[in-house]
Design a protein that fits this description.
The chain is mainly beta. The protein is built from seven helices and 32 strands. About 10% of the residues lie in helices and about 30% in strands. Strand 27 and strand 28 form a beta hairpin.
Length: about 550
């Protein structure tokens, strides 16, 4: 247990300054690699921009545009279209099976040799963005008292490009909540690039993203993860990337599921451009970071492989890299290795994908363009969380909007973490199976629509299930359900009570407190910038789990 007097001071500062994060701390990760001097032989120039500005298609299925759109559709639910809603759809654990995809270890090893690394502890010590004072709480409902709040620096709080979605933290990473010897106690938040303009598209009248007139937001950057340092109230962004061999057979990387597809040199009519990943959920477990990929399953990253493009912490000077090249963190319009210079869209830190867990079940034949879901077939990986209250399990579930049809308001499944870890570390095709699955409860109304859909996050705690239900630009709801036997079938039975939460509620994360001795906290976050509605605001916040349980009765 840590020093109680220090902890009291920490929490007081967190509430006052928005620095949050109760009960969090980092495992010793990789330390920064020594920076090598310039190579004696200058490599051949490769991939001159703009002749080649992106990676080949990564082989993943596209997510539908407008993923997780509460406002899509005009009907009033499944029942209005003759779809029976008296009982939940059957939970079929076999539909949730995941298998390790194409081996990325060789690509990651090449990146590892070419670029310096930074450990998470050092990264947190060098966090460069201060959390803001949250001011008056205006986005929360009356049913629950907010215990901790963190607010973003002004540009992150208002950005139309980056939208926060997922949350995890050291309580997921390690049961003892002790990440190394640092007192940083990190919480991690995942956000996606929502602008999605794609790359150069002359056919659509859009100029090349590298032109001086182009905005820094022109390129689709995929996903970034933000690590908060509790001890300092500071945070830092890390860009997630996909490793690949470029046109000159040199190792490089690009943003996740970047939209350019196989288009060289520009996106043109007929090019199979990709849609960006949404990353609606995230779990940090041990050294691995699991990120939900709605249409495919999960992408996996290794916190021991955080690459540092600015080891000397001086952005004005291009740093030499171990492969004899240099890195540039001032140019925000380039990514990967271009003309013998490494770029990361201006980000100092990038973390390459090390594994993929892809669903093995075939998709339903129905459309998902309007967030529809189906009773059988491959689920969506809309959100994920960790349950540590028994044998460690990952929870995975679907966001569904029944106003647009489909045959299900959503399903959830649970995987033993031991099986997921074995799949990540195993050969291609190594599989992990869910050992439990349910359909969401049905038959309950919320205004003029179904209550049990539009779920943005879920978690299981001491046998009960909790769901964060969004409500467009208004207060969302926290829901509770318990497995029960109904007419001989085990299904989730919903609690009749709902609790108002924040505007734009998202993913869920439990800081269980077993390592630091403090009360368990249910963490979440709000996604909407103030431009979306008069009362909208982005915050990261927690409720005392004991109050949540008590209020549900």
């Amino acid at each position: 247990m840590r020093n109680p007097s220090r902890r009291t001071r920490l929490v007081a500062c967190a509430v006052a300054a928005g620095a949050m994060l109760s009960g969090l701390v980092p495992t010793v990760a990789a330390s920064a690699a020594p920076t090598a001097g310039p190579a004696s032989v200058v490599p051949a120039v490769d991939d001159p921009v703009p002749d080649h500005e992106g990676m080949p298609d990564d082989g993943f299925d596209d997510e539908p545009e407008g993923e997780q759109d509460d406002l899509a559709g005009t009907a009033t639910g499944l029942a209005s279209r003759g779809v029976a809603a008296a009982a939940p759809v059957p939970g079929r654990a076999a539909d949730f099976r995941l298998a390790n995809g194409t081996d990325l270890s060789g690509l990651v090893t090449k990146l590892d040799a070419g670029l310096p690394k930074q450990g998470l502890t050092e990264l947190l010590d060098q966090a460069n963005r201060p959390a803001a004072d949250c001011g008056t709480a205006g986005i929360y409902g009356p049913d629950l008292t907010v215990s901790h709040r963190v607010c973003w620096k002004s540009d992150d709080a208002t950005s139309s490009e980056w939208v926060p979605q997922a949350i995890s933290g050291v309580s997921d990473a390690q049961e003892d909540e002790d990440w190394g010897t640092s007192n940083a106690e990190p919480v991690a938040v995942g956000g996606y690039d929502a602008v999605n303009p794609g790359r150069s598209d002359y056919a659509a009248g859009r100029d090349d993203c590298l032109e001086s007139s182009a905005s820094d937001a022109c390129n689709e950057k995929g996903i970034r993860v933000t690590f908060f340092n509790q001890a300092t109230g500071m945070y830092r962004h890390v860009l997630l990337v996909w490793p690949y061999m470029n046109s000159m057979d040199h190792i490089s990387f690009d943003a996740l599921h970047a939209r350019e597809g196989r288009c060289n040199p520009v996106v043109v009519t007929g090019c199979a451009a990709q849609n960006g990943i949404h990353a609606g959920g995230m779990v940090w477990y041990g050294n691995y970071l699991y990120v939900a990929d709605t249409a495919n399953g999960m992408r996996v990253f290794d916190l021991r492989k955080i690459m540092d493009l600015n080891p000397d912490n001086d952005a004005a000077v291009n740093d030499p890299t171990p492969d004899g090249l240099v890195s540039d963190v001032q140019d925000k319009k380039r990514i990967g290795r271009q003309s013998n210079v490494w770029y990361g869209y201006g980000y100092r830190y990038v973390m390459p994908q090390v594994a993929t867990l892809k669903f093995t079940t075939a998709k339903s034949s129905g459309t998902t363009s309007g967030n529809q879901c189906y009773a059988t077939g491959r689920p969506k990986a809309s959100y994920i969380s960790l349950d540590r209250t028994g044998t460690d399990h990952m929870i995975l579930g679907e966001y569904c909007n029944t106003k647009n049809g489909g045959s299900s308001p959503g399903r959830v499944g649970a995987y033993p973490m031991s099986a997921l870890t074995a799949a990540v570390e195993g050969a291609t095709g190594t599989a992990a199976s869910a050992d439990e699955a349910y359909g969401l409860p049905t038959g309950v109304k919320f205004g003029d629509e179904d209550l049990w859909h539009k779920v943005q996050g879920a978690m299981r705690y001491e046998g009960k299930w909790y769901f964060h239900r969004s409500n467009a630009y208004d207060n969302g709801r926290l829901l509770q359900a318990t497995p029960g036997t109904v007419d001989g079938t085990t299904q989730l039975v919903g609690n009749a009570k709902t609790l108002q939460t924040s505007f734009g509620p998202e993913d869920l994360y439990l800081a269980h407190g077993r390592g630091d001795g403090f009360a368990p906290q249910l963490w979440s976050l709000s996604e909407h910038a103030p431009s979306k509605c008069g009362a909208c605001k982005r915050e990261v916040y927690s409720y005392n789990m004991s109050e949540v349980i008590s209020d549900f009765g």
